[in-house]
Automatic annotation (TrEMBL):
Residues 118-145 form a coiled coil. The keyword Coiled coil applies. It comes from the Bacteria. The keyword Coiled coil applies. Keywords: Coiled coil. This is Uncharacterized protein.
Length: 151
C-alpha cells in the first residue's frame, strides 16, 4: 500500500462526474450557505468575546475511554495527581472568568464612550448645518441687494 501513488486527476475526474450525474450546478450552493462551527480565530472582536465568554471554564479531567483495565489504571493515576492538577485548573478558571469580565467591561465602557462622542458630534453637525443655512440665506440676500444696486 505504501508504493501506491495517489492520482489526484483521477479523483477529481470522479468527483466531477458524480456532480454531473447528480445534476448539480455552481449556482446551487456557495460557501456562505454551508453551516460550520465558528471558532474565535478569524472573526470580529465581538465574536471572539462571545466565544471566550462561553468557553472560559476548563474541565479538570476529560472523559475516560478505552477498555476497563486502561480506565481503571487511568483512574488510579488521576487520584494520585488530583492534588496537583485540580488547584491549577481551578486557578486558571478563576483567571479566565476575571479576564472575560474585564474584557466585557472594557468593551461596554468603550461603546458607551463612543456613543457619547457620536451624540456630541451629531449635535455639533446639526448646529453647523443650521449656521450654514443661515449664512447661505444671508449670502443670497446680499447678492440680491448688490444686483439691485448695480442695475
Amino acid at each position: 500500500m505504501e508504493n501506491e501513488k495517489i492520482n489526484i486527476e483521477d479523483i477529481m475526474a470522479e468527483i466531477k462526474q458524480k456532480i454531473k450525474d447528480q445534476g448539480l450546478t455552481a449556482d446551487m450552493l456557495s460557501f456562505e450557505d454551508v453551516p460550520y462551527k465558528k471558532t474565535a480565530q478569524g472573526g470580529s472582536a465581538s465574536e471572539a468575546l462571545d466565544y471566550i465568554t462561553s468557553h472560559y471554564y476548563i474541565q479538570p479531567y476529560k472523559e475516560l475511554k478505552g477498555n476497563s483495565v486502561k480506565v481503571f489504571i487511568k483512574k488510579v493515576i488521576r487520584k494520585m495527581v488530583k492534588f496537583y492538577v485540580e488547584p491549577v485548573v481551578f486557578e486558571q478558571n478563576d483567571f479566565n472568568a476575571n479576564a472575560v469580565t474585564v474584557m466585557k467591561s472594557l468593551t461596554d465602557s468603550k461603546s458607551s464612550d463612543l456613543s457619547g462622542r457620536v451624540e456630541t458630534l451629531e449635535l455639533a453637525n446639526k448646529e453647523l448645518l443650521m449656521r450654514l443655512d443661515k449664512l447661505e440665506r444671508e449670502n443670497n440676500e446680499l447678492r440680491s441687494r448688490l444686483s439691485g444696486e448695480n442695475v
